[in-house]
Amino acid sequence: MEFDSGSAELNQRIAEWLRWDKNEKTAEEIRSLAERKEWKMLGGRLLQRLTFGTAGLRGVMQGGFNAMNDLVVIQSAQGLAKYLLQCYPSEEDRSRGVVLGYDGRYNSKRFAELSACVFLNANIPVWLYGRTVATPFVPFAVLELKCLAGIMVTASHNPKEDNGYKVYWTNSAQIIPPHDRNIQTSIMENLEPLEPSWNLDLLLSDKLHDPYDQMVELYFRKLRSNVPATFIDEYNTGSPVRFVYSAMHGVGYPFVERAFECANLPSVRAVPEQRDPDPEFRTVKFPNPEEGKSSLVLSMRLANETGCGLILANDPDADRLACAEKDAKGEWRVFSGNELGALLGWWSIRCYREQFPDRSLSDCYLIASTVSSKMCRSIASVDGLHFIETLTGFKWMGNKSVELLYEGKTVLFAFEEAIGFMVSPTVLDKDGVSAACHLATMACYLRATSNQSLADKLNELYDIYGFHCTLTSYHFCYEPPVIERIFKRIRNMGGGAGDTAVDQSYPHAIGEGGRFKIADVRDLTTGYDSSQPDGRAVLPSSKSSQMITFSFENGAVITLRTSGTEPKIKYYAEMCAQPGQRDWDGSRATLREMVDAIVKELLQPEENNLTPRSD
């Protein structure tokens, strides 16, 4: 049956979908919309495509080329398979295969199995995990098995309606340009699904292997080797510190349980309602521990009932880690990603010194994304390490780590403020399982050696390296044209044309009466940086996302950027004090005032109908 939408292009896309899609449910979705003449909705679903972005593919699960479904997954796998064979044409390279993993969301296993069939049909061997795994186990397997690529089917902490397709390259780091663009091009050249791509009988092939037992055993052996043996024996074993753990309805629990066993840590008390994979995420509004106390209600209740003083929580695919600690007054403090980054950065150096006391730190590196706290930079400056800043996202930090390791350098730690931590380069991506093990070991170490809490240690680090306070949050904006308008206005608040990097006219100050003077502006959308002699940013720029950083005369740094995976405008603010400066409350108050001013004056939430984060 042919449909006439009044658009030749849409008619063609409807016909293609109904011809290609072998999934009865999503095919019927599109057919039903066409029969009801829902042309506008069909245009949104069929005239645009999901494209490789910050995290590969990510979108709502429904029919249409602009969503996650069987057909789009098959098309994506076909494009990736063709591109891999272009990059690695020899039979020997092809035999290295690809690794596939999946989380506990709806359709994750099916999407992984369909992808496996595409690669098997292309005569590429497949390592398909036989059960749900934490995301870090895919890049770990790419590295250890020397695979051509890895795919993790997950939407991380997105709502239950979503799923995603995260791709790792041969170096085991997430894909970056030009691979993301080239894969997208290859997908567009291979849209028609081959008939065998739908044939799940290919899963019986002798070229399909389950790496689960081998990789899990190796992962935990390497994790234990990264924790100093003296710390395990003297501080973890028999420690009085007690932990509550939440898997946030995801896949993390068996891996964190095993991590604690291998490091002789006290067993975690898991929140029973959130321990096992549940694609409904039924106890939380957002399955994201980055949301703070609102996501940790059940964890705090269990900790209060059982006398546990620390809470550890992963996101559903267990590549991020949140932590809360009960203070002397019985109140819970949820640490920010920046605070945990400071603690784990210090801890990485402490572990390295314990294991290699005779080695210099001069070839060691700490890495952070540009919107994360500069605390690791301060630590590196005082302690004689190197610090490197990258663009936002672990794909940049993972690939930078690959470069440094190839040069013979030692990468101790990398982090982003969105509670992502790479404690050692065993996995060249954020890893919430190893981070949980290290943070718990740190807590036991501090209790045994100095009777300190994590908060006590953080304050001590501020005394040594300078107080760093941060504020991060976001506003929802569901209309891309509004986002464009907001950032165009910011670039023209001084009256310039705003078309090129040289005639940008950004604000010169914010606050009442222009109280807070702006010293420099860096715009990684246009590539402009007023602090550079030639006015060009050092970090790569991209017109596909918005990102402007303001450096103020008083030492504050505030970045406004759009999210690569969610309809948000985010802000990241930090005040960096010098070692010995003690007016911490004053620094916090000033930063709060500056953030309120920049949101009101630059984002204009009321005029632009922005929805603030609900805590």
From TrEMBL:
Q: Which GO terms describe its biological process?
A: glucose metabolic process; purine ribonucleoside salvage
| Cofactor list | Mg(2+)
Which GO terms fall under molecular function for this chain's record? Answer: magnesium ion binding; phosphopentomutase activity
Q: Which InterPro entries match?
A: A-D-PHexomutase_a/b/a-I, A-D-PHexomutase_a/b/a-I/II/III, A-D-PHexomutase_a/b/a-II, A-D-PHexomutase_a/b/a-III, A-D-PHexomutase_C_sf, A-D-PHexomutase_CS, Alpha-D-phosphohexomutase_SF
Task: Tell me where in or outside the cell this protein is found.
Answer: Cytoplasm
Residue ranges of domain Alpha-D-phosphohexomutase alpha/beta/alpha in the record: 50-190, 219-326, 365-463
PANTHER family per the UniProt record, alphabetical: PHOSPHOGLUCOMUTASE 2B-RELATED, PHOSPHOMANNOMUTASE 45A
The family annotation for this protein states: Belongs to the phosphohexose mutase family.
- Mind telling me what this protein is named? Phosphoglucomutase
